[in-house]
TrEMBL record:
Keywords: ATP-binding, Nucleotide-binding, Translocase, Transport. It comes from the Bacteria. This is ATP-binding cassette domain-containing protein. GO terms for molecular function: ATP binding; ATP hydrolysis activity. InterPro entries: AAA+_ATPase, ABC_transporter-like_ATP-bd, ABC_transporter-like_CS, P-loop_NTPase.
């Protein structure tokens, strides 16, 4: 699907990740782990730029429009599928078909709030689910998420991860939850000290392996003990 060969990633003259060599295959669920500020988002955004035509991105910033409704924020994910006139008309008077589709997605995401409600009135976890709904509405084969479940309770996060995996053959997620990554992803990439320090099948890894490369959270450490 995509190969990076000796790629330096960063901003202006500053290199954040040097000489990245990674290949991403279709139909793979990949988790990217590592300490805060190490360059996980930088890598994910680079991957998105390379694969944007087949990818929906659920970024940390989410990019929701506070003054618009849940419905319209989700519909934004499908703008490219329709003409400008269809989109404009739908903005003024939402059509039945996308309404039913978006309502169905929101129900799957356990977002039981009227679709007309403004996003500015939602909790952090509800906002995160609107961002996930917009990603699902894009109907792309590749899902990329930057901590897409961080505002949800762990059980709901797991349910929604399974939903995302069912809807997208390829999933690449930046995560802080090492246990979630080990148990529910095929492959784990760890970034530390400005480079990729681990890239292996999840089934061959444990929390102890990961903790050799970066400090895990207290909860994860307890499991190691
Ligand atoms: N737009 C930008 N311009 C310049 N530097 C940036 C920009 N975005 C991020 N950085 C810097 O790049 C480095 C890596 O940031 P990045 O967001 O990729 O890390 P991260 O591993 O995703 O962090 P976190 O886990 O805290 O989200 C940080 O030092 C950050 O300050």
């Amino acid at each position: 699907m995509l190969s990076l060969v000796d790629v330096d990633l960063g901003y202006n003259q500053q290199i954040i990740l040097s000489k990245v060599n990674l290949s991403f295959n279709a139909n793979e669920h990949v988790a990217i782990l590592g300490p805060s500020g190490v360059g996980k988002t930088t890598l994910l955004h680079h991957l998105y730029q390379q694969l944007s035509e087949q990818t929906c991105l659920c970024s940390q910033a989410q990019g929701l429009v506070d003054n618009l409704s849940i419905y319209h924020n989700v519909f934004i994910g499908g703008l490219a599928r329709h003409s400008r006139w269809y989109n404009l008309a739908n903005l003024l008077l939402p059509f039945k078909k996308p309404q039913l589709h978006i309502s169905d997605i929101c129900q799957q995401l356990e977002l039981v709030v009227p679709l007309q409600q403004k996003v500015s009135e939602l909790s952090g976890g509800q906002r995160q689910r609107v961002a996930l709904a917009r990603a699902l509405f894009q109907q792309q084969p590749v899902f990329m998420g930057d901590e897409p479940f961080s505002a949800l309770d762990p059980l709901m996060g797991l349910r929604l991860l399974n939903l995302i995996k069912q809807a997208h053959p390829s999933v690449i997620c930046v995560l802080h939850d090492a246990e979630l990554a080990l148990a529910h992803f095929d492959r784990i990439i760890v970034i530390s000290d400005g480079k990729v320090v681990l890239d292996d099948k999840a089934e061959q890894l444990t929390l102890a392996h990961l903790s050799q490369h970066y400090a895990l959270t207290d909860a994860a450490k307890n499991v190691v003990i």
